[in-house]
Amino acid sequence: MIDVVGTSVLLLALLAAVVLLGAFVQSVVGLGLGLLVAPVSAIVNPAWVPVLPLWLALLVSGVMLRGEWQRIDWRVLAWMLPARIPGTVIGVWLVVQFTEPQLEIAIALMVLVGVLVSVRTADVPVNPATMLVAGVTAGATGTATSVGGPPIALLLQHREAAQMRSTMSVFFFVGVIISLAGLAIAGEVSTEASQVALLLAPLVFLGFWIGTKLRGRLPPERLRHGVLATCVLAAVALLVRAAA
């Protein structure tokens, strides 16, 4: 079978389809690319995680910043973004300490937590304490596993959709830069993962564009349930792989 960057074309095609779907979902609801791409990336090549999903998250969040600036909640970001820095330090330490199977298990568990947060959410007050906790937690989990959205989504769950999307996009864009910088300092940003991210970048733009065209036309609950089911399957497959 033909290989590209050391991986079969079939597996790369699977990853490309997941990237397209993840960018589409994120453009509609504000998150989703990391939940989908992280476990599949780890199945295709564990060495690409967390760097590959982080590069793609940086791209999609950067694209999403266009057009909804007036909806951003800067007060929330003023608390959460500085808190991302100590969280990033924790996340880098975890990446350095974890073996590949341990990192796969951590990714799978974070995806399942994200699904649980989406299905059964509790009311969380938005105050300085919860914003700081969310920022630190997202920094640690986002850096170590590239899945940092659940704490922020839980905090902003009752916000209007456009405000949630735009605020999370700023947090992800700046936060991913911080995470990648921390990983680079630790020598954990591989050239191959960066090359694959560049290869898959057009699919991020395409998925985002499709999502913007279909916003408001899709039944959100049906879309959400389909995405969550896919996330669970990917996470379970990753847990089985890690256990084996």
Describe the structure.
The protein is built from ten helices and two strands. It is mainly α and 244 residues long. Strands 1-2 form a two-stranded antiparallel ribbon.
Number of helices in the DSSP assignment = 10
Overall pLDDT metric: 85
Radius of gyration: 16 Å
In terms of DSSP E residues, the strand content is: under 5%
Specify the helix fraction band: over 70%
List SSEs in N-to-C order. Answer: EEHHHHHHHHHH
Principal-axes geometry comes out as globular
* Largest sheet: number of strands, sense, barrel closure: 2 strands, antiparallel
Q: Distance N terminus to C terminus? A: 24 Å
Task: Briefly note the structural class of the backbone.
Answer: mainly alpha
Strand order of the largest sheet: 1-2
How many domains? The number is 1
Uncertain segments are none
β-strand number: 2
